Amino acid sequence: MFRMKNALIMLIVCMSLFVLSVPQAYCQFKELRVLHINDFHGFAEGRKTIGSDEVRGGISCLAWLADNLRKEKPTLLLAAGDMIQGNSFANLFKGKPVIEIMNAMGFDAMCVGNHEFDFGQDVLRERINEAAFPVLGANVKGIPELKPYIIKELEGLKIAIIGVVTDDTPIVTHPGNVKGLTFLSPAAAVEEYVEELRGSANIIIVLSHLGYNADMLLASRVKGIDIIVGGHSHTRTIQHMLIGNTVLVHAWEHGMALGVLDVVVKAGKIIEVKSRLEEIVPSRMKKREDVAQIVDRYAQQVDALMGRTIGEALVDLDGENVRTRETNLGNLITDIMRQQSNSRIALINGGGIRTSIGKGPITLNDVYSALPFDNYIVAMKLTGREIKEALEHGVSGIEQKEGRFLQVSGLSFTYDPGMPQGLRVVDVFVDNAKMDINATYTVCTNDFLTAGGDGYRMFREALKESHNFSITADTIRSDKVTYNDSGRSLKDAVVDYIKEKKNIDAAVEGRIKEVRCNEGVCKQPGKSPSSRYDR
Questions:
Q1: Residue-wise pLDDT tens digits, 68-109
Q2: Beta strands in 292-389 (DSSP E)
Q3: Among 35, 125, 221, 466, which is 20 to 30 Å from 419 by CA?
């Protein structure tokens, strides 16, 4: 009896010691909040979008909301890339104001986006060194300032955050911006670090600038990721997606919303998930004053340089739908390009047009916001076959709203999105006649596409076939080039046109039409079918 009593006491003591030895994080429920934004692109001030009279966005209001939400539970504030480039507010100062704002807001981490490279590597290094938070890029080799991951500790939870950027970056920024850098497979990089970190972290977050569809593939391929906070595709996810055991969230664009992800963790596992988007509506919110002061200080400088009126828009000029269909702003810009370079055809990637221009006075800032890149016009001789190949490439990513979708002038075409990639373009017309694939046409575009950007290899390959071919950061040379003014940007050509014309009116004219074809009969949605599509 005595022995049994002693044994029972020893058992109780051992169990007590075991319980005491278990980390506190494994014994209790832990709540964690992740606040996140992506694809901010320097849109610090609130603005009206086409079709709405209500101002949306504004980083000082977003900062105020983030502060209030942080008070409720342990919180991480994360940014999923494309923060420092886009709007004139950021571009005039090469992203410096955005980093200053993010420092004031107390961001915990940011992954590098493809547009972080748009000012070149030296500027990117400057911005990283100014940041009071780590900038992550696990799959980028050549910039030591980019860390692959960090580990944060909140309430006894160790949270690993791995950052990755799309390996398409060399073709979605100017090739000169990433010279000497290597972009590895994001999935391979994440897999490597997940394996390394799983034993030392309770939660693994991937901060991703890959795009929504690529994030879904990443979640299905790489096991052990608890949360993916994503960007790049500007996806508006009202609620999270659950792929296996991985939670996926995106938070739209331009600081128009703040993503809120709440999780409950027990024994190192997420057992409950809630998420939402908090849209930023200044009329219903307060501003965080110190952030507002930073915004005002830089905005005053922008207005002094860019606030003068150069013309009047008689209609809203749509720069928001340029990745999926013909728009009047796309038509206006390509018409100007064609006129400027004396070309027969003009093509520009929709991703090169970033915002709309509202009806009313047009300022210099409006044009520079719509066309934020320092691209210039290049014209060259291309065959009809090469033009058709370019059009096919343009519509090959329409489902994902890829920036390679083309706005056009001097031609019209129909395409069937239901067909396989490379076989979607049905008809192409130049000057009301069907395009001859063997004929040669003068085509203008921008230097980004000419150099092979957005995957337009056909332009670069066409120029390589001629004598005296070279592409540098400053100019493009080839016997096939008919116009090349690297000293004058596309946006300045647009500004000069608006100054001259004063009153700007543009319309959608049926240059790009979606059709559905079945056994040679094509039908535009909402119209009667025809054996040869009626333009």
A1: 999 999 999 999 999 999 999 999 999 999 999 999 999 999
A2: 309-313, 345-349, 360-363, 376-383
A3: 221
Closest CA to 410 of 343, 504, 329, 480: 343
Give the pLDDT confidence of 372-413 residue by residue, as tens digits. 999 999 999 999 999 999 999 999 999 999 999 999 999 999
CB atoms within 10 A of CB 485: 15
Residue range 268-274: mean pLDDT, rounded: 95
Q: Are 402 and 339 in contact (CB under 8 A)?
A: no
- Higher local confidence (pLDDT), 464 or 293: 293
Q: How far apart are CA 141 and CA 168, in angstroms?
A: 14
Residue 461 in contact with residue 363, Cβ under 8 Å? no
- pTM above threshold 0.90: no
Q: How far, in Å, CA of 36 to CA of 109, rounded?
A: 10
Residue 439 near residue 381 (C-beta atoms within 8 A): no
Let me know: does 530 contact 521? Beta carbons within 8 Å.
yes
pLDDT over 70 at 54, yes or no: yes
User: What fold characterizes domain 23-295?
Assistant: Purple Acid Phosphatase; chain A, domain 2 (3.60.21)
Using an 8 Å Cβ cutoff, are 428 and 434 in contact? yes
Domain with CATH 3.60.21.10 in the chain: 23-295
Q: What is the pLDDT of residues 455-474, one digit of tens each?
A: 999 999 999 987 788 887 67
Q: Where in the chain is the domain with CATH 3.90.780.10?
A: 308-523
Q: Is the pLDDT of residue 13 over 50?
A: no
Q: Determine how many CB atoms are found less than 10 A away from the CB of residue 20.
A: 8
Distance CA 466, CA 4 (A): 96
3-state SS of 172-204 is HCCHHHHCCCEECCHHHHHHHHHHHHCCCCCEE
Buried/exposed code over 340-359 (b: 16+ C-beta within 10 A; e: otherwise): bbebbbbbbbbbbbbbbbbe
What's the maximum distance between 2 C-alpha atoms anywhere in the chain? Answer: 106
286 dihedral zone (left: phi>0; alpha: psi -120 to 50; beta) = beta
Pairing of strands 309-313, 360-363: antiparallel
What is d(CA 170, CA 168) in angstroms, rounded to the nearest whole number? 6
- Tell me how far apart the alpha carbons of residues 418 and 422 are, in angstroms, rounded to a whole number: 11
3-state class (DSSP) for residue 293? helix
CA–CA distance from 269 to each of 27, 242, 305, 476 (Å)?
A: 12, 15, 53, 55
Residues contacting residue 142 through CB under 8 Å, at least 6 positions apart: 121, 180, 181, 182
Q: Write down the pLDDT at residue 329.
A: 98
Question: What is the per-residue DSSP string for 455-524?
Answer: G-HHHHHHHHTSSS-EE-SS-EE-TTEEEEEEEEEHHHHHHHHHHHH-EE-----SSEEE-EEETTEEE-
pLDDT at position 12? 44
**Cα–Cα distance measured from residue 16 to residue 14, given in angstroms and rounded to the nearest whole number:** 5
CATH class label, 308-523: alpha beta
